[in-house]
Amino acid sequence: MNHSRTFSRRATLASLAGAALAGTATVRASASEQHGQHGRYGRTVRFATFNASLNRATEGALVTDLSTPDNAQARNVAETIQRVNPDILLINEFDYVEGGGAVRLFLDNYLSRGQRGARPIHFPHHFTGPVNTGVPSGVDLDGKNGVVTTPGSDAYGQDAFGYGFFPGQYGMVVLSKFPIDTRAVRTFQHFLWKDMPGNVIPPGYYSDAARAIFRLSSKSHWDVPVRLGHETVHFLVSHPTPPTFDGTEDRNGRRNHDEIRLWADYIGGHSRSAYLYDDKGVRGGLRPGSRFVIAGDQNADPYDGDSYDHAVRQFLDHPAINLPAKPPASAGGVEAAKLQGGANIGQLGNPAYDTGDFSDTAPGNLRVDHVLPSKGLLPGRNGVFWPTSDDPLYRLVGDGTTVVTSDHRMVWQDVRLG
Fold first, then answer.
1. Cα–Cα dist 238/81, whole Å
2. E strand residue ranges, 3-144
3. How many helices (H) and strands (E) would you count in the chain?
4. Selection from 299, 298, 222, 322 nearest residue 266 by Cα
5. For the chain, first and last CA: distance in Å?
6. Which helix (H) or strand (E) holds 415?
7. Axis crossing angle, helix 9-17 with helix 331-340, rounded to the nearest 10
8. Prediction pTM value
9. Which of 250, 237, 366, 240 has the alpha carbon at shortest distance from 293?
């Protein structure tokens, strides 16, 4: 990607409206259904990421909502997944429940039931695990209110390892039609920020006690190996903290940058990844030549928004990543930028590539959700599920005023093992 080239939204809206058609009601069969099952060599597999906003304000509320098949938002999330029909999917902002009960309820009560004419979708395999959000640190991380250890308040969230009102809020889950090698999963929930060489921890902001225990990952970083026939693709998933909700020290922007850097180093060979250690104490990064797909709500746009030092470009400029000829796009993103105006008008990024429908005052709509294949994987079709207002499925995204499903859009990328 040539980052010296910028885009004027005002100038490109008209030309992009007719070109960016991916990610609407035209998405029907999944890649595995189009090209054959079992992901054998040369077959195509659809990877996707979706910040589905299946988080709740109180612990246990998600289980309550998913215990019946009639929660409106959960039905919209399920239908969106059914319409895009990915083979391997990361869901961000899915509250973690120990034992996986919430995941099974969503699979049984929502995905296995066709929603409003969509076909049911079945994921025989899934992985979820604990995250740092809402886990008390036992230290006054923000230097305010002392150490807060009672869940349920903003002050508690500020002192947690990752912001959350209770342990597991804003968690993650991977769903797959293909087997997951669960014994080989690597997680980096406990990796300490201070142990990253050259980190960008804000100077002088955190106390010595805070720096000593501060975990880098605001949720977790997971390397989830998926078996595609005789091949393995590592699904590298995470959800870095938003680079906002802080002060002039930019602590969240800096953390977001280094959360993204963790994966950039992990895939960067021994010289870059040797310092890393996972939650089992195993050191180092991904073996050279391994194939992978990086996915998640990175909370970072390559041109716009508040990210620190264009954080996501650590991926987009990475020599191990094989970018598609064009990023996932939609016509709905173009339409939304035009109709909503505000901060969208002055942005540099291409609105067809937006994946988040955010405030029009600031920051505007952004490209923050990414699915990026490695060298050794051949990128094919892709898209952002963002229907236009004349599409029957527009009801799943809305106009941005009322969030009917999520303020993020599903992003998908077909890849072929080549």
1. 19
2. 44-54, 88-94, 125-128
3. 11, 11
4. 222
5. 22
6. strand 411-417
7. 140
8. 0.93
9. 237
Residue 111: DSSP 8-state: I
Instruction: Give the pLDDT confidence of 21-45 residue by residue, as tens digits.
Output: 443 444 545 555 544 444 444 689 9
Contact criterion met (CB below 8 Å) for 395 and 388: no
Q: How far apart are CA 23 and CA 112, in angstroms?
A: 22
Over the Cα atoms of the chain, what is R_g?
A: 20
Each residue's pLDDT tens digit, 302-319: 999 999 999 999 999 999
Interacting residues of 153 by C-beta distance below 8 A, sequence separation 6+: 165
104 contacts: CB under 8 Å, gap ≥ 6: none
- Asked if residues 416 and 360 have their Cβ atoms less than 8 Å apart, the reply is no
The rounded distance, in Å, linking the Cα atoms of 59 and 43 is 41
User: How many CB atoms lie under 10 A from the CB of residue 3?
Assistant: 11
Q: Quick one: pLDDT at residue 35? A: 43
Q: Is 241 exposed, middle or buried (0-12, 13-18, 19+ CB in 10 A)?
A: buried
Query: Residue 363, preceding bond cis, omega within 30 degrees?
Result: yes
343, 364 Cβ separation under 8 angstroms: yes
**Per-residue tokens: 91:** 């869901």
Mean pLDDT, all residues of the chain: 92
369 has which bridge partners?
297
